[in-house]
Amino acid sequence: METRFNLFENEIGGRFAKRFAGTAVVLHKSGLPRSTQELVSLRASQINGCGHCIDMHTKEAAAAGESAVRLHLVAAWRESSVFTEAEQAALALAEEGTRLADAHQGVSDETWARVRKHYDDDQVAALICLVALINAANRLAVITHQAGGSYEAGMFEAALG
Length: 161
Fold this sequence. Notes:
This protein is mainly alpha-helical. 68% of the residues lie in helices and 0% in strands. The protein is built from 9 helices and no strands. Helix 1 runs antiparallel to helix 8 (121-143) and helix 2 runs parallel beside helix 8. The radius of gyration is 15 Å and the shape is globular.
């Protein structure tokens, strides 16, 4: 797969990407556990078929100490015993927030109640923003054909500078 367009080399795309990346920094510094952020980003990226983002979030999670078993089971988290109740709530929100067109009602009341049980207001805000952000990132990467495979842990942080 050949990259169609490099947003970073375009003046408008580059300015947008810089601000877009800045929103990710806000979320990284939030009280939402970094492991949860990576799991949520990975799951949404799997649903959206974004190889670049799957590559990035798998490698960032592994570099942060996430186990291979948990990373391999993210796609089947409902049928797994390795995720906490809080992580399961976050993964459910990620799925329902990503599959808006499929869910008809958006995020279910049951999922919302599970999220509210495990996360405080700041963490909920971060989780909602993260789901929106990763879905937007997936779309940018899929539209422009950003291939997975070449990402190295820490590249994102290094690019911010």
